[in-house]
Design brief:
Distance between the termini: 43 Å
Shape: globular
Bound molecules: iron/sulfur cluster
Strand content: 15-25%
Helix content: 25-40%
Number of strands: 8
Strand order of the largest sheet: 3-1-2-4-5-6-7-8
């Protein structure tokens, strides 16, 4: 499949997408990752108002190294499930929205999956966006933050950082991975005074323990660069994906949190002086 044949059509991120990049030879995948000249996108959308300030263009990359039990897009875990897109094509597409994004005080958000699985591709797009005067937001779990150079961070206006839990053991059981690299990235962003918006997915019975939330809040509160916390209520929109992909889904009987639980969780973040919504 040629990357130049791809049309970047805005799509719903909750659409199941598999094997879109299977036609790309393995060697091309490796060289694309090394150069950043090609990336794999799960979805692309315009007009988002929930992925950073203003009205935004959002690109969701394919590929994630975590296996969160409550992931609502498990089809983003595999890079070759994404559409192969050349960096020049992605930048040309973004250029079309430049004026509109500026008028609507918005910008570009790159989300995932985990964008830093394809950090060179992401860095190139952010560099172009920054040069066009477009606000840039990186939505990341932070695990590969050490892959991003200081120079590349200069092109990032905001990081939407997914914090799952401050407890290392619990983090491993929720995601399969350690939280130390995420915390190191958060501290590095704090030292650079690069703003963070924390995203915290609230799953009843899994991430709603008040003591545990309070520890996560304490970590976020001490950073000094967290501008807001978004408590995101768990939902079942990704359930069918787990089933269709033949993955074991342990949350089939879990209900979304009540408004009261969301409010109590927000209050724990507010207790350390953060704005939480
Ligand atoms: S970090 Fe995000 S994309 Fe990756 S498994 Fe967790 S929820 Fe899914």
């Amino acid at each position: 499949m040629s990357t130049e044949q791809v049309t970047l059509e805005a799509r719903n991120p909750f659409e199941l997408r598999v094997n879109l990049g299977n036609g790309v030879p393995e060697a091309d995948v490796r060289s694309a990752l090394a150069s950043g000249d090609m990336g794999f996108l799960h979805s692309f959308t315009t007009g988002s108002t929930v992925d950073g300030p203003g009205v935004r263009v959002v690109a969701w990359t394919a590929g994630c190294m975590w296996r969160c039990r409550y992931c609502h897009n498990p089809d983003t875990w595999t890079m070759t499930n994404g559409i192969p897109v050349s960096v020049s094509k992605a930048i040309d597409e973004l250029r079309k929205y430049r004026r509109g994004l500026q008028v609507m005080s918005g910008g570009l958000t790159i989300s995932g999956g985990e964008p830093l699985m394809q950090h060179r591709f992401v860095e190139k797009i952010f560099a172009a966006a920054h040069e066009m005067g477009i606000h840039t937001a990186l939505d990341s779990n932070g695990y590969f933050g050490d892959r991003v150079s200081d120079a590349a961070l200069n092109n990032v206006s905001l990081v939407l950082l997914d914090l799952k839990t401050a407890d290392p053991e619990r983090h491993r059981s929720l995601t399969g991975m350690d939280n130390a690299p995420t915390h190191a990235f958060a501290r590095r962003l704090a030292a650079r005074r690069l703003p963070i918006w924390v995203r915290y997915v609230l799953v009843p019975g899994l991430t709603d323990d008040p003591e545990d939330v309070a520890k996560t809040a304490a970590f976020a509160g001490e950073l000094g660069n967290v501008e807001r916390v978004d408590v995101l209520p768990f939902h079942q929109m990704g359930k069918y994906k787990w089933e269709r992909l033949g993955l074991e889904y342990t949350l089939a009987n879990t209900s979304p949190p009540t408004n009261e639980l969301v409010e109590q969780t927000c209050a724990l973040f507010r207790n350390v002086g953060l704005k939480a919504y």
